[in-house]
User: Fold these one by one.
Assistant:
Number 1:
Amino acid sequence: MSQPILLAVAGMGNNISALFQGAEYYRKLAAEGLSEEDFPGIKLPRIGGIGVSDIEFVAAFDVHPNKVGSKFGDAVLASPNNYPRLDVDLPNPDVIVDEGLPADFTPQQFDAVVSRLRESGAEVLLYSLPTGLQWAATAYAKAALEAGVAFVNCTPELAARDEELLAAYEAAGVPLIGDDLASHLGTSVVHRVLLGLLSDRGLTLSSSYQLNFGGNEDFRNLRDAGASKRQSKLNALAQEGVDTSRVEVIPSAGFIGQLKDNKVAILNVEGQGWAGTPVSLDLKLKVQDSSNAAGVIIDLIRVAAAAKRVNAGGFSAAAVPVLKSPAGGHPKYSAADVRESLKQLDGVTAGQ
Amino acid sequence: MSQPILLAVAGMGNNISALFQGAEYYRKLAAEGLSEEDFPGIKLPRIGGIGVSDIEFVAAFDVHPNKVGSKFGDAVLASPNNYPRLDVDLPNPDVIVDEGLPADFTPQQFDAVVSRLRESGAEVLLYSLPTGLQWAATAYAKAALEAGVAFVNCTPELAARDEELLAAYEAAGVPLIGDDLASHLGTSVVHRVLLGLLSDRGLTLSSSYQLNFGGNEDFRNLRDAGASKRQSKLNALAQEGVDTSRVEVIPSAGFIGQLKDNKVAILNVEGQGWAGTPVSLDLKLKVQDSSNAAGVIIDLIRVAAAAKRVNAGGFSAAAVPVLKSPAGGHPKYSAADVRESLKQLDGVTAGQ
Amino acid sequence: MSQPILLAVAGMGNNISALFQGAEYYRKLAAEGLSEEDFPGIKLPRIGGIGVSDIEFVAAFDVHPNKVGSKFGDAVLASPNNYPRLDVDLPNPDVIVDEGLPADFTPQQFDAVVSRLRESGAEVLLYSLPTGLQWAATAYAKAALEAGVAFVNCTPELAARDEELLAAYEAAGVPLIGDDLASHLGTSVVHRVLLGLLSDRGLTLSSSYQLNFGGNEDFRNLRDAGASKRQSKLNALAQEGVDTSRVEVIPSAGFIGQLKDNKVAILNVEGQGWAGTPVSLDLKLKVQDSSNAAGVIIDLIRVAAAAKRVNAGGFSAAAVPVLKSPAGGHPKYSAADVRESLKQLDGVTAGQ
Amino acid sequence: MSQPILLAVAGMGNNISALFQGAEYYRKLAAEGLSEEDFPGIKLPRIGGIGVSDIEFVAAFDVHPNKVGSKFGDAVLASPNNYPRLDVDLPNPDVIVDEGLPADFTPQQFDAVVSRLRESGAEVLLYSLPTGLQWAATAYAKAALEAGVAFVNCTPELAARDEELLAAYEAAGVPLIGDDLASHLGTSVVHRVLLGLLSDRGLTLSSSYQLNFGGNEDFRNLRDAGASKRQSKLNALAQEGVDTSRVEVIPSAGFIGQLKDNKVAILNVEGQGWAGTPVSLDLKLKVQDSSNAAGVIIDLIRVAAAAKRVNAGGFSAAAVPVLKSPAGGHPKYSAADVRESLKQLDGVTAGQ
């Protein structure tokens, strides 16, 4: 085991539960003798030499009364979190959840976050509050910068795409990784490859739709406020040969409590082949929604920590494959850039 | 309209019905003013300058009593063919279906096929008998060679992969295009991209299966004799990161007459993501089976005819994207080879 | 052909398009020689001697600018209606669509409706405005009563369950048929039989959900205002042995324009069998939404007209099987009551 | 806990594993304080006073080398059995599996079975060998009769429908319960209710199919020899208003080892509603195949044991709801007969 990431988190939702429990799950597999090359669900066992269980939670911020003031290990399992309780023993890190910033935070409150980050020794601040709070993303990003802590933005808010902010991180030699994580196996990527395949094979798209539903808080929130999410998901499907005006996306078709943290997506694709005869595809995708996020967060925080350890400020191309909106945009980065960035993180660390 | 392909066919099954009716379907669309760039289900409106309706049937061989001795236009719609009757007027080419070769054919019978091909003026012989008759594929390929007619092999039998045969075609300056067409939107390619996506995203394949069923004669035949087809379909799924020992394929789960020429495929993929939590995909694909073949045959015969017109003997890389087993194997050809081959067919023809 | 129903309609939506076109569809089948016993989708070829094509539209009310003032045959096909245009010739009845009542209608406007009904000679007024307009249901029901015209209420608003109103209809000898049509093959009835089967066989329901989506105006309206519809749908699933607290229903998961007048429903049922081992059912139901209504409306209006012709005022038990909330409630009526009522409508008519 | 059923079994397949493990599963639930009224998957907690864990295995016959000569508890888990190992402690009854009868058994071998049944003290012999061995069903039934042991036939072979055999059981005062268990939640019953619903609502069946597949030995066997099973399953769908000539059934679409003892069924129903417009239902059913049998076997053996205890020879109507082909045929029994029979088994037993 290499030196663990000293991790602070802003937001204590299901994603953090998945990350926390999952790290212990893999620790248990390793203890049972499974090689990390064979870990299920893991593509890169090491990034910058850091393994998937090498995480130490050192600070946490949230605003929910069930969480603020509780010990980390209790807060992360408290309602409304409903990620399943995995069959592993969990530690209870000696960390009390701090009250997070309110929308009308004072300079004193901001400074308190900076101090907390500093005194915790955190290497990385993972930002994963609910979608839509641009002010919060900006505030935590600025606090991390001031504390010299690498910042990872899981949400669609602007952070790494904020050129001024990115320049400040670069100047300070602090990593800034974002924005918006691309789910491990998201509806969008499945939909995208099916539409792409249709086009690539020379069939004509007639119509297509995608519905998502589930039982965590996201599906309650998105049910009413899905318009921007809808557009973002349509953008994710856009590619050569695909007419997205023929595609409908429903980000939240409904909150179905019994599904808990599972997400179900229904996809339909109708097309025309030779002589205009129809082809149809109907697909049902079921995933553990927060595992879908944590499986990617594990890469983002390792990139951030590894970059920090080699003093690589600003954005790292190694994070590109798991981001929806990387700094500078996807077209800026080639597969070679990603490989090179990963090598750099590995190489230098290995040399230490 | 450019000069039509003078086409002979060995086998008068649903694929030929789809090809014949489809050519008229597109002729009708063009007559209604639709640009060929907007034809549904067509990726390449022109290959070597030849459009999708530029086909003239000049000879046909079959052994079924419902077909032998009938006029082409009657035979192609006769039972057990059950491709749908499209809403287009059909011509009835002045061609009588000849008795095809029996398994124990005599030299005289072979010579009769050669003569028929010669006197018909055929440019291309399209071979699409039922799967499994290697002797027939070889015999028709040799007859075509002797008659100086380009040969297209739609089936998994060896023809273009038979090195001796290929050398003979090359020496004679006659095109030989094969083997085994890759369906327009086949179950294999859909299954393959889903398995590839899972691997690419770093999830672990737990298990997967694929079942195919339909109501044409193929599904009756394959029900009992699917072992080689099963292996061929498993091969088609093999790729980096995919453990096909975890995949089961049932080429024919059953003959369901009411489906007629439709094929339905059921796919399931079970995987593990972060912390070993499950992901599952269930997909139903429904296609018009013979359109799925004809949408590819249209490219194969255009490549063959265009190659013949420019005296390009042997195999043409332009056919690679629509073949399962091209001469020499897939790895031999790059995307650039395909583009170059297409350009060559276009360029020279255009210069005529 | 028996004497046609002289029919007035309040609301000119897809249901009326389906009813109007469908009547002609069956007329065409009959003209082609098909016996009405073999009509697809028809359980009772005759009710009170009236066939499914025996409809004559004599008056119509609507408020949409695309419809008011137009001829019936134009209005019924005008946007936002998007029921498919069936492959039949349509007559264009000599009826102009009248402006319907506004929410703040005056006594004069009310009287105009009564006069219009009287002068049209209508036997039945079919009420099928959008769900939720209790004032409109009441107003049209009172106008019909005053005009001596039978009233059919397709919606969940109170009419036949309004005891005072029912008594007035009974006293006047005018039929009042309602409330709320039960779709021909609705999601609720499919869901209900699956849940009932599980219980009947002795398996334990773990959880279940139902999502509905489509491309007509209903799905746009219900997306935001589905709470009462949700409860009504849950009620429809309630039965002995079924714990509906384990069931979630989403009346509109989304408006998907490309589906037009089609409705898709996704059902899931999870249960436990012997030793607590799981069983799961996943079902997709696709229907032509307005045919699903018209297939039932055809029975309601025939019951109403037949009852009027034999001077049977008030409610008729013959309508019970196709209503969600019949006057007095479902438990009041046995299968024998329904048969008896049908016989009465038939018998007396036959005796005329 | 009442007096356990002393049970002998002919055949040690997955069904016996499910029965054996399930009995312990419910014993554990009871020990944890769950009332038997709340047992998941159990409709009748008591039959004749006997609970679902009241089973004692006293003899077993099989021919598989992995099983013969082994202790019961080992044999029941041995390959090719692949019912899941439930999370309960299992006893290992002091019973060695005897070699079962071969097809050409001698009188001596037959007598050995009779003796073994006698000396074991068995009350009931449960016959659940693979389908198709009529000689075996007859032989074991005769042996049980001679030993005075009640006989339960889970298979489609003739036993309770063999009038001569039934008369002999009646004369001897020994229960004979069969034939052919109706799965707890089988594909047939689900398919049947959907077809019945369509008819009941007045829609017209266009076509329908049903495919079954799974990973236990049944699906390997049925793949090649499914013709009689197909007809039996079609019979099970027959009902008023359903034209089974429009239905196709594939008893085994394939053996998919990864599914182990799970069964998956795919159902499709296409119909026509008002104006001939289409309705379609697609359903996927997934069950634990052997739980589906054991959940019914538990009723059959309790009926048999309770009947034996009250000296009710021959068939008992209490078994009718869980049999496909009860003695005398389904129409012979009313729901009242079943209730009466259950009461008789309960009442007399209670009075002891």
Number 2:
Amino acid sequence: MKLKVYADRLSQPVRAVIIFCEVNGIEYEEIKVDLANREHLTPEFSEINPMQQLPAIVHGTFKLFESHAILIYLASSFPGVADHWYPDDVYKRSKIHSVLDWHHSNLRRGPITIVQNSILAPVFRRPLNPEAVAEGEKILSAALSKIESFWLDDNRPFLLGENQPSIADLSLVCDIMQVKLVGETDWNRLLGPYKKVQQWIENTRNATNPHFDELHKVLKELKEKLQN
Amino acid sequence: MKLKVYADRLSQPVRAVIIFCEVNGIEYEEIKVDLANREHLTPEFSEINPMQQLPAIVHGTFKLFESHAILIYLASSFPGVADHWYPDDVYKRSKIHSVLDWHHSNLRRGPITIVQNSILAPVFRRPLNPEAVAEGEKILSAALSKIESFWLDDNRPFLLGENQPSIADLSLVCDIMQVKLVGETDWNRLLGPYKKVQQWIENTRNATNPHFDELHKVLKELKEKLQN
């Protein structure tokens, strides 16, 4: 009963799920659903996920969508996933839920608003929208500032003060990485003020490499393709 | 070690948490944080929740914010909470996570956008914004349509096909109830097309009464106060 992951690596939550599988030795089949070609809107994919979004998984007869729910399912169902990803301890686990819930209404809205209204707009046949980009940058900065001053206080290596990452670190860092698409200059301008955030991204990358770099290659490739 | 719930009943996720406590016989102390008076922005409350949002709980030395994380913590930590609220079964539990995650980026944005830009605007010293209200109505309708056609397909009484509600039913229904603030005419216009959603709201109300009606009294009281 091999796990099927419906994926387009351009999607940041897709990358989080695939990195999680790779790091934890979970065998999976990656089924490409090309977002730019609107394959997520087809009747075939709607049978997998009626919400027409990526990622989605099928495991035997069990279907699931929403990346946080998928990460929790994988951590809970596959033997051999280390406890630090999604601890059994109810207090630690609750803190992870809290970060992930906060992520939805805060950080997540930053990178997606920035890239969809700038570099990715032509890919998805949308107009450029500098006002929306500015709004996205404000959301991103506010969220990074909260992460820096609250969750990464005391120079913790990861969000919850442990020495190894949880699914919350992976999810949030993959979302921030999407900002790489707008180029190094803007990345440095937007991330520059947040030294602890930068170190935390590096810690999460190191803890999940070589898979982290492998999965993020798509950003560099797309950026080069769009520039040519 | 009595649970402290930081609350303003005007907030829909606050109501979900308090109804959950009442229905499950969880003893709690309700500590009012008046949103209209900006008490959630004070240094005192920032010590409880640095994100300055409601609800938040303190249980002994353990602090937690984000209503979904709180509901899961309460269901996991307090003896006597029936399994249907947050089942031990990994498949059922994963479906609940999936609904709750989807809720963040979809349904939740509808009611809050509608009421904050119409009836609640004067309370929070914000201008009325009919364009934002229209956008909120679109988000709400799209979300209700998905709930009606997917989760409530086959005339299930609750979202996950069980005969008793989960924390997902409670969270989503409390959010929709906020639309009552704009009045019966608009409620009927917005909810009218979704017969299964209406029945599901009624099922959730019946399964949690008298606490459901008690907690929602605040909506009628505020509406009358604003009209006078």
Number 3:
Amino acid sequence: MSGSGLGLVTTRHAVVATPQHPLRLVGGGVLEHVEVAYETYGELSPARDNVVLVAHALTGDAHAAGHHGDPARRGWWDDLIGPGRAVDTDRFFVVCPNLLGGCRGTTGPSSTDPATGRAYGPDFPDLEMGDLVAVHRRLLEHLGVGTVHAGVGGSLGGMQLLQWLGEEPGRLRRAVLVAATARLTAENRGFSAVAREAITSDPDYRGGRYAEHGVVPARGLKVARMLAHLTYVSAAGLETKYGREGIESYLHHQGDAFVRRFDAGSYLTLTRLLDRFDPFADPAFAKAAAAGEPEVLAISFDSDWRFGTDHSAHIVAELEAAGLVVEHHEIASPWGHDSFLLRPPGYHELVAAFLQR
Amino acid sequence: MSGSGLGLVTTRHAVVATPQHPLRLVGGGVLEHVEVAYETYGELSPARDNVVLVAHALTGDAHAAGHHGDPARRGWWDDLIGPGRAVDTDRFFVVCPNLLGGCRGTTGPSSTDPATGRAYGPDFPDLEMGDLVAVHRRLLEHLGVGTVHAGVGGSLGGMQLLQWLGEEPGRLRRAVLVAATARLTAENRGFSAVAREAITSDPDYRGGRYAEHGVVPARGLKVARMLAHLTYVSAAGLETKYGREGIESYLHHQGDAFVRRFDAGSYLTLTRLLDRFDPFADPAFAKAAAAGEPEVLAISFDSDWRFGTDHSAHIVAELEAAGLVVEHHEIASPWGHDSFLLRPPGYHELVAAFLQR
């Protein structure tokens, strides 16, 4: 929990699907070229038994810790991951891949479709959670990793790990599911629907072929992000951090910055995937997950009104009904869903203790 | 609380400001022509002492009760207002004006600016709550009404009545403030900021001169309404009414219908006014309101996360600190802020009992 953190790190890339070894998607699509951006921290042990997979959330990327040249600008989970930190890189070999369907180095809607030579755009196939997990698995094969000591993920990151527990029992020995859900509510879906409408109704969306026209649906993407940000922070957190006077300019700043770093097609693809995620709808899922006998730690935050404690409790209840004992902690934090990226008292300590078992 | 309701009603119009008797606005602007759309129900007593003013919310209109020809399509507060109902038209003379800055018959940004002969659009002056009240007062003068037996308003409607209590003590003898607030939170303002960004970034907004171009910023206005609707209903209410599967199409339906009946400029003007509303910032305000010795009933709903019980409690605390005794009831209702338009158990009964004192 101390130390100055990782130093310079670099993002690497691996090709995990080729025409000879395509990725066949759950929904029926096929991707003949999949490249994954990822970072690793720490050293793989000779026994290859010290791997921690970090799965990021909707708009995250592979750059979880350390820096890319400017020590003042560090990865999004830098205070969790590093020498002596909760995810201790003196002990663990940490792998953080950018997710499939994203736009930060891993294949997604803004990537070139090898069949046409132009960006996939609206032709990018529908993804399911299992497809994201399949890419993680291929990356670990590429790295020569079998069993995973632990997976740690927040929000959509936790959902990917949950999917993996049921899909390949035993491979993931431990999972830390932070502010995750196994099923979006109508309200969750409603906010995503508004964000998608903002994007697709932007005239620069051009039916999804904006890249070919040299434009981006920046107006819609900005509105989508401004809205999403409001749902990530609690009302009290907004009041404390930005206040009545500061909130509007803050949201504009957030929205403008997002447009520069994120792709509208990825936003559509990933929010639709989130809408559909409902693994416990299949009664076999929980049984399979329990059969792998993983250790599971669910963490939720009391002010999270997006995927709050009731969502984690739902995951716990489903897994426990299948015979697995799950640890669940609600952490007091005023910052809403965003708490998973911050450090409310007790949170990192829980993760550290769980990984050190 | 029984009866078949009012029959056919009509919307009337009154001119309450002219070049000879202009409306000088709180913020310094001047309107030389103000027309008000309003409806009345019941009969004014010979003593002119049975007036109930109904003040509507952000997107409401003068058509609160009865019907305009199709008995199946009734005013927005028809189950509250009518013969034998909580606002009993056998006893009271009910006046419901459309608010200044709106677009449903009362002067607002979509009205013609007499100085230019074209729609005001972005030139429509900034409004404050006192300006809306000033138009109410002029309408009542036009109708020959002095003291008002009671005002009843939900959300922005309640805020107009609160403003009036402090502005002209004694004129409004009773006020029912339903799901109102005296100060928006950062979160409240944030959602309005997103809605405004959606509207003003729509290319058809044309810097506010859309009417001159024969277009409307329909895409932005639709997104604004979809978003607002999510904040009007509780998460549980969305789940019950629309469910995970129905929410997206429901929001699209709501958004499309709104574009047909509401003006983007009015949305901007009125949400900015709401952002600024903060009457208790002036210590004299509460004292003035208390000096009028009005009877005040504040009603909030337990699932309202827009202007919930803490907002009503804030109003009550400020008025009571100034020496006024205020009645406040929290009503159990699963429908969030929208509850003020619905009929959760106990709500209409409270209003009826209060008005009959």
Number 4:
Amino acid sequence: MTDVVDLLRAALGDAVSTEADALEAARADKSGQRSAGAPLAVITARTVEHVQAVLRSAHEHGIAVVPRGAGTGLTGAAMAGPGELVLSTAAMTRILEIDEADQVAVVEPGIRNADLNRALEPHGLRWAPDPASREISSVGGNIATNAGGLLCAKYGVTREAVLGLDVVLADGTLMRLGHRTVKGVTGLDLTALLIGSEGTLGIIVGATLKLTPIPTGAVATIGATFPTIEDAAAASAAITAARIRPAAMELIDPVALAAILRHLGLPDRAPGTAHLLVQTDGEAAESEARAALAIITALGGTARMTTDQEEGERMLAVRRAMHPAMESLGQVLIEDVAVPRSQLPAMFAAIRTIAERHGILIPTVAHAGDGNLHPNLVYEGDEVPDVIWRAAGELFEAALALGGTLTGEHGIGTLKRRWLVDELGDEQLALQRRIKQAFDPRGILNPEKVF
Amino acid sequence: MTDVVDLLRAALGDAVSTEADALEAARADKSGQRSAGAPLAVITARTVEHVQAVLRSAHEHGIAVVPRGAGTGLTGAAMAGPGELVLSTAAMTRILEIDEADQVAVVEPGIRNADLNRALEPHGLRWAPDPASREISSVGGNIATNAGGLLCAKYGVTREAVLGLDVVLADGTLMRLGHRTVKGVTGLDLTALLIGSEGTLGIIVGATLKLTPIPTGAVATIGATFPTIEDAAAASAAITAARIRPAAMELIDPVALAAILRHLGLPDRAPGTAHLLVQTDGEAAESEARAALAIITALGGTARMTTDQEEGERMLAVRRAMHPAMESLGQVLIEDVAVPRSQLPAMFAAIRTIAERHGILIPTVAHAGDGNLHPNLVYEGDEVPDVIWRAAGELFEAALALGGTLTGEHGIGTLKRRWLVDELGDEQLALQRRIKQAFDPRGILNPEKVF
């Protein structure tokens, strides 16, 4: 296998690295997990041809390839281990085209989501997917995981914002999927199939993105507290049921809120206090916010509403402080279940029961507009203890029992593989494996991930 | 093979028909085409178990099965011929659930699009896909073709309005794909893959649909005429570029307009006159319509705007009269190319050149908001003459050369099979066939369609 590394180095020069630091970095992502050992080499592709060359060699020699973007994934999908090659598209960061008339951008996969959106802003356009990681995550990674974010209840997930993909298959074949038009139904929708496939079907080397106008009009923000998380969740469900469509609607449970307030140096609230953030935008921003405010107050919330942008940002800062606040508690396993919106109160109750049963902390935030919860399972030490895995398993069971899903926006990766069959069933899992085989008959692309 | 029909009749009773009328009806759809001869039998499934029973038998005996809904397709995908079984889901029309809180409906595939939306209206909800055929086409057929319609530039296509599918595979296995939650990325997105697969991968027997609130606020409608279709297309492109998002924006070319005016008994316009219809909705309806009106006038259009609902409906009636007006011209082959929006003027010019070259009429309407054109190639007699096929081929070439696609919303079926490889290329077509095989190893589901 070292021979292949030598061959690649001869062909690709300094794009191939076997430096200890590079190998070590590729063992991990942002999941807190780490692979069993160092991979063979990290190839930082600068062109599509680099990607093709690596896959042709790997295919010929039967060597596993782990595709990698910015390495910000939360499920271990980009972690590489012994005997594997890492193929990074992080250096392919060019914007090839911004077409204002057709509202389309053509980009390389390595560009950061926020960098792309900063480049689009002068054109009055944006790419709607806005994962919380947007400053550090790449467009290619957003596509590989079908990333969601704060705005997607109103503005859609990644799948709805991608028109076409350039993909290199396991054998090095470059394939252009999809189209540049808004609509198109020519053959099977392989673009949609690739989105969220977590590097198991092909390597994304280019994307034709559907852009949308940056919303105009006011932005209104509401920060509200409730005596319990169930009350707060009931209010968010009532807002959805009232046909109000907030741009963002975030729930913060009491455990998370206490940690965030401590982290920000703000005074404590009464035990059990939960937080609800609502932001509306567009022409109806104010009237929608006033309607939401009335619901919040009627359901026992204490709320403040503003149309001042800076004050709105300060309110959102509470939610944005979640990740740093968690770091002060210890290590966290970040989970990502989703349930039908009406089941949010039941899911929060289930999380509390599970935390109490195991004597652990599970601070939880949720994108309430789409029923997606992020329970953070807190633990000490370098390894995820068994009790945390057991609690995670019970979380998944509870979500599935409520008509939900294992993962709303992070993906399966290595972390949730053991539960995949619980949701899909044996027959669908077998079908998914046959499809994987149609793309990658030798099984070299991101093996032991997802399936 | 008659044995299989006998076996099915023994098992399913009067769900199995070999009546001449039923067989004859299943030879055609709304494409104007007809299969080479009568199929073996038509099975009108009333339950999921019926569908499974038919597929188990067909799979065992290697008999082709043509899935069929309302039979309103425009590409021949539901046409059945000698040696084939027709499996119709048209009688499975129940709404199993409407959940207002989660904005979800669970339905059987045979329900008509418009019937579903009438049932949703009292709940203040709708299922957004609105093909022009909505009164006669089924939800299952809308899903099998990823149907578009007049509103989809603003409100999305079918793929964006389906959360989960119950599908019976070729061997009779029932599989539940997707989920009930708004978000979910567990494994490969087989729901998206099934949408638009035209009956080649499985038979849709149930769907979990994402509903959206019926827009509130005013509706504003503009009817405008321009001296040429290129002027009208330039105005529609300018409206899009100005970040206005009409609910519907329809172009009618001079040949189509003349036929429609004649059909409606309205006075002729000057030769070359083209029509542009714009409808805006929601809170910003009036301000958006006024901005569109200013653009239309500045670009040489003569326009009338109304916020009166009845007058707006009368304006839209011009567009709705397209299909009946075509019937007065002769037979038509309805095409469905899509191009990037900025290329609409170029595509209209190409259509005129092709029509003149062959001495034929190609009245054309377009969903301007998403660049989707429906050229209607007019001919006489029962068979599509060679000159029409040649002209259609040139249309496809022109669309592809402009960065477009063969089909925006009707699908490939049998009509566009010969051009599929021109868009996909040999390698992608081979990959699509391997995926088909992963679902249907014996190739019994809708053979000779699409691929």
